[in-house]
């Protein structure tokens, strides 16, 4: 029975930490100044680009060495391009099914892309935790469960700044802390769900992991370059640039330290 509770805790810890990160939005009341918007955008871009490299692209290349020993970068390249193309095509599809009167504002497009990118990033992370607990269940060893739990805790801690990085820019779109928090929390729902899928289909889905990791990285890189980095210039100061650097370094430290 203990192993079931550890597995359940590991799965939902991911969601709880994303939710706690999104709750940071409640620390800010009223209208956000241009300098604060630049700070939020810079921090979000830094977190997302660091997560793309250390959480997604490098693991994608490492895992692909098993199946593509001569070209381990191939899934990463194709996945990144696919993630970028996915967001471009999605924008085009959404615009076509809307009338001109209902056409999205630029702010709404950016909010949607940001949410999709972070959510896509959470899916392979959830699968990775599910794989680890699935392997632990097959082995039946306490040490295997300890390793799986360590992975879940590491990814969960990384989810805190990611939840904040999504919810804070969402505040600009919705002008509502409650709605921004709800979107940030919703992005984390896919993690326990994908963890359950990974647990039951660990052997079958393992080969897809490098492609999924890179696909999510492509989506996050596209959003960072297209939407977030340009906003670091708001307010005519370097606060956005420094915020980007701090967010990047903080996420890099978490990724490397927690593995």
Describe this structure in words.
The chain has 259 residues and is an all-alpha fold. Helices cover 81% and strands 0% of the residues. The chain contains ten helices and no strands. The mean pLDDT is 82.
Name the helix and strand elements from N-terminus to C-terminus, one letter apiece.
HHHHHHHHHH
Assembly type of the chains comes to single chain
Distance between the termini: 28 Å
Structural class by sheet pairing and helices: mainly alpha
DSSP summary: helix tally? 10
Helix content: over 70%
Number of strands: 0
Provide the gyration radius in Å. 18 Å
The average pLDDT is 82
Uncertain residue ranges = none
Strand content: under 5%
Major sheet summary line:
none
| Bulk shape | globular
Features:
mainly alpha, single chain, 259 residues, 10 helices
Task: Kindly summarize this structure in a few lines.
Helix content is 81%, strand content 0%.
List the helices and strands and how they pair.
Layout: H1 2-22, H2 34-64, H3 74-97, H4 106-139, H5 142-174, H6 177-187, H7 190-200, H8 202-205, H9 209-228, H10 239-258
Helix pairs in contact: 1-4, 1-5, 1-6, 1-7, 2-3, 2-4, 2-5, 2-9, 2-10, 3-9, 4-5, 4-6, 4-7, 4-9, 5-6, 5-10
């Amino acid at each position: 029975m203990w192993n079931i509770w550890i597995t359940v805790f590991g799965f939902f810890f991911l969601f709880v930490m994303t939710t706690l990160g999104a709750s940071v939005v409640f620390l800010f009341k009223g209208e956000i100044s241009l300098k604060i918007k630049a700070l939020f955008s810079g921090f979000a871009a830094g977190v997302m680009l660091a997560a793309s490299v250390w959480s997604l692209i490098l693991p994608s290349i490492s895992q692909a060495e098993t199946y593509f020993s001569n070209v381990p970068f191939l899934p990463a390249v194709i996945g990144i391009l696919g993630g970028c193309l996915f967001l471009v095509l999605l924008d085009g599809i959404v615009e076509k099914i809307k009338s001109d009167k209902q056409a999205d504002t630029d702010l709404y497009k950016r909010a949607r892309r940001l949410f999709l990118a972070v959510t896509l990033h959470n899916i392979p992370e959830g699968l990775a935790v599910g794989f680890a607990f699935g392997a632990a269940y097959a082995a039946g060893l306490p040490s295997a469960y300890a390793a799986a739990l360590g992975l879940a805790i590491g990814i969960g801690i990384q989810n805190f700044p990611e939840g904040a990085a999504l919810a804070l820019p969402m505040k600009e779109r919705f002008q509502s802390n409650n709605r921004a928090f709800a979107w940030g929390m919703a992005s984390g729902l896919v993690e326990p769900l994908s963890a359950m899928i990974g647990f039951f289909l660990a052997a079958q889905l393992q080969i897809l992991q490098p492609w999924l990791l890179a696909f999510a990285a492509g989506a996050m890189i596209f959003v960072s370059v297209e939407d977030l980095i340009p906003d670091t210039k708001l307010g005519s100061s370097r606060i956005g640039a420094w915020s980007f650097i701090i967010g990047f370094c903080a996420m890099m430290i978490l990724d490397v330290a927690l593995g």
